[in-house]
UniProtKB/TrEMBL annotation:
GO terms for molecular function: ATP binding; ATP hydrolysis activity. It comes from Gossypium raimondii. This is AAA+ ATPase domain-containing protein. Keywords: ATP-binding, Membrane, Mitochondrion, Mitochondrion outer membrane, Nucleotide-binding. It holds the Pfam family DUF7751. The keyword Nucleotide-binding applies. Its main location: mitochondrion. It is found in: Mitochondrion outer membrane. Residues 229-355 form the AAA+ ATPase domain. GO terms for cellular component: mitochondrial outer membrane.
């Protein structure tokens, strides 16, 4: 039978389970392979109760021909899966492509995200070549525009693969640096930009000036001693305010490699060898520069020997003016930090709870890709969520998005019960297109379910504000006089 027929659509275009069956001497070996059996394979064993074992050819010429045929079948399945996905994305966007079936996309497997990128680039390419095409009711893209977009996607993926390969090819001095290979993330794999953060404009502007500009234009900061790039920045504030998003955006926008370390992880996983691990982190960061070393849970208590090791390696970075390595630390408790550590973080930026205007910006970013009712008022939702962090707003939106789905499930349950009572066949299930847009009622319901995780009047919040006044950027630096001096 022709590959990719009705049977293959049952498995979502995946050939893995079918090729598994081709290489099995018998289905009884499924339990002897030492790994979990996929659902598709279990389904096939039930679908075909009578089985005939097909052995691989023993003759070398026949075996080579058989393997070649398998490769061709897999290639055909991949091409058909790619074309079906592109056709789905085109149809969902109200577009079509003339001669799409003639394309042979066999060198890569498209995902939903990459297929949407291909269609978007193809649309731009088509409108550039045909400016008058935008006035038509249904756009019909040319096959050349799709092929052009696939070529762009292939080039981007090849560049990402070469970057990953170059990172792995960096010489490692010891076992600790080898273990860090998986922790070095290229900027293309992070996928978070400053535009994905709906607020914190002042913090973003400061980070662009301190981090991105020196990493992108180091030649502007090599004259004199006062313009040396900043080597350490501390982000502090209550949980859920966007510190993790900021550090990812910094690495992405600055096109720098990203290394994340957790202080609690060092003291537990690397017990007794923390100093060597810290040295390996800074050594690795120097070799893959430009790089951003993100230290999470910076407030954790750890041995003095580990502090000394970190300070020595940190000072080594600070003496190398041309070394494009930045230490970006984050903490919820800056008042627990040692003074020697604070001194090495000359820029200390507070990431505070958003005000009403910034909450509205965050909501717009979170709901940018959701289908909304025209009556959704972002300012009204922002006003009712006083004291909410960015993480709280995300949880609120998720709760609101589930409400239309719950309504559909409840309606289906009632319809099925009514059909069963009347001895009628059950009605068809709803599809994603039947889900209604989000409205203000959903937001008010979610507001009753999701509350703020951080109290603006808590002791921890008060201590954060006091520490910001003393050590943070923009603080008054005025220490409070003790009562016995009065």
């Amino acid at each position: 039978s022709q590959p990719g027929g009705l049977l293959f659509t049952k498995f979502g275009g995946s050939q893995t389970s079918l090729l598994d069956l081709a290489f099995l001497d018998s289905f009884g070996r499924l339990h002897d392979r030492g790994k979990e059996v996929s659902k598709s394979t279990k389904f096939l064993t039930k679908l075909f109760p009578n089985r005939v074992t097909v052995h691989m050819p023993q003759d070398e010429a026949l075996l080579a021909s058989w393997k070649h045929q398998l490769d061709q079948d897999a290639e055909t399945l991949k091409m058909k899966g790619n074309l079906n996905l592109l056709q789905t994305v085109l149809g969902r966007s109200g577009m079509d492509c003339e001669g799409l079936e003639t394309l042979r996309i066999k060198d890569q497997t498209l995902t939903n995200e990459s297929a949407e990128k291909v269609v978007g680039w193809a649309l731009s390419h088509h409108l550039i070549l045909n400016p008058e095409a935008g006035s038509s009711s249904r756009l019909v893209l040319s096959c050349e525009s799709i092929q052009y977009s696939v070529t762009i996607l292939q080039a981007i993926q090849n560049e990402s693969k070469s970057l990953k390969k170059s990172l792995k090819d960096v010489v490692t001095e010891n076992e600790f640096e080898k273990r860090l290979l998986a922790d070095v993330i290229p900027p293309s794999d992070i996928g978070v930009a400053f535009d994905d953060i709906g607020a914190l404009e002042n913090v973003k502007d400061t980070l662009k000036e301190l981090v991105m500009l020196p990493l992108q234009r180091p030649e502007l900061f090599c004259k004199g001693q006062l313009t040396k790039p900043c080597k350490g920045i501390l982000l502090f504030g209550p949980p859920g305010t966007g510190k993790t998003m900021l550090k990812k955006a910094v690495a992405t926008e600055a096109d720098a490699n990203f290394i994340k370390i957790s202080m609690s992880g060092i003291t537990s996983k690397w017990f007794g060898e923390g100093e060597k691990y810290v040295k390996a982190v800074f050594s690795r960061a120097s070799k893959v520069a430009p790089s951003v070393v993100f230290v999470d849970e910076f407030h954790c208590t750890y041995p003095s020997s580990l502090i000394n090791a970190e300070m020595v390696n940190w000072d080594g970075l600070r003496t190398k003016d041309t070394e494009r390595v930045l230490v970006l630390a984050a903490t919820n408790r800056p008042f627990d930090l040692d003074e020697a550590v604070i001194r090495r973080l000359p820029w200390r930026l507070m990431v505070n709870l958003p005000d009403a205007a910034n909450r509205a910006k965050i909501l717009k970013v979170i709901l940018a890709k959701e289908e909304l009712s025209p009556y959704v008022d972002f300012d009204a939702v922002a006003s009712m969520t006083e004291g909410y962090s960015g993480s709280d707003l995300k949880n609120l939106c998720v709760t609101a998005a589930h409400r239309p789905i719950k309504e559909i499930l409840e309606r289906e349950k009632k319809e099925q019960a009514a059909a069963l009572a009347e001895s009628k066949p059950p009605p068809s299930l709803c599809r994603s297109a039947d889900i209604r847009p989000l409205n203000m009622v959903d937001c008010r319901y979610a507001h009753q379910q999701v509350c703020a995780s951080v109290s603006s009047e808590s002791v921890n919040m008060t201590e954060l504000l006091q520490w910001n006044e003393l050590y943070g950027e923009g603080g008054s630096r005025r220490k409070k006089a003790l009562s016995y001096f009065m």
